[in-house]
């Protein structure tokens, strides 16, 4: 089977999306691969574990960014028994997604979706827990002539800060819990080239890039008051290693 995406399910277990087999699978601690849910006739893309020990999976009818009124694009929340708990998808009134590709649940129960809108462009869609659109993130403000914000993956930390990889911006960005740009965690000057995938393990951030390298960082934060008494969050990083 073809694994499209991996995600931690907690307790040493790994979730896997089997695109062509139209299944969500799990690699158990004992090394056994078991089926969690069948998604037929839809294909699973990105997936994530939720704070209530369930899973969210991106679903598409075709691997295509050109969609029609008959196209099916959305998300499904399932439990460990494969039962569908919630479904969020395009309707005749509202088109939330073009091709939902990656997903992450924030600690505040918001759902963040990397949505490809064409073969070369994407956006970060934020939904509340009911599936209602909250906002579309634009990332760092661009200077004239720069590439548009082009997210490829997203994850969230324990304080609801958002980390998103900007594929053509060659950067990894930190967004606030209100989804405003805070700073670049990594940029091209740090050797990042086409960041494709992210994984956060406590304070350790793993970044897989299109140049075949995996960068591992340890993140830390501290707060300070500004001149107006507002709390300012400062993030710092230390590079642990680069795997080629």
From TrEMBL:
The organism's place on the tree of life at top rank: Eukaryota
The record ties this protein, via Gene3D superfamilies, to: TolB, C-terminal domain (2.120.10.30)
Report what the protein is called. Answer: Tripartite motif-containing protein 2
Protein species of origin:
Magallana gigas
């Amino acid at each position: 089977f073809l694994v499209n995406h991996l995600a931690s399910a907690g307790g040493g277990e790994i979730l896997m999306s089997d695109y062509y087999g139209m299944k969500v699978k799990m690699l158990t601690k004992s090394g056994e691969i078991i089926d969690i849910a069948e998604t037929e006739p839809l294909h699973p893309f990105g997936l994530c574990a939720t704070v209530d020990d369930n899973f969210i999976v991106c679903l598409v009818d075709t691997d295509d960014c050109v969609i029609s009124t008959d196209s099916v694009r959305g998300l499904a929340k399932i439990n460990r028994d494969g039962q569908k708990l919630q479904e969020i998808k395009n309707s005749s009134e509202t088109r939330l997604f073009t091709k939902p590709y990656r997903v992450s649940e924030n600690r505040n129960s918001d759902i963040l979706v990397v949505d490809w809108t064409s073969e070369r462009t994407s956006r970060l869609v934020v939904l509340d827990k009911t599936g209602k659109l909250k906002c579309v993130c634009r990332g760092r403000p661009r200077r004239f002539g720069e590439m548009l914000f082009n997210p490829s993956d997203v994850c969230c930390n324990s304080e609801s800060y958002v980390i998103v990889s900007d594929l053509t911006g060659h950067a990894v960005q930190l967004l606030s819990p209100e989804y405003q740009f805070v700073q670049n965690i990594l940029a091209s000057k740090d050797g990042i080239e086409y960041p494709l995938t992210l994984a956060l393990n406590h304070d350790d951030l793993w970044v897989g890039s299109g140049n075949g390298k995996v960068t591992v960082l340890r993140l830390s934060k501290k707060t300070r008051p500004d001149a107006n008494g507002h709390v300012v969050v400062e993030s710092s990083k230390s590079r642990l290693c680069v795997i080629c």
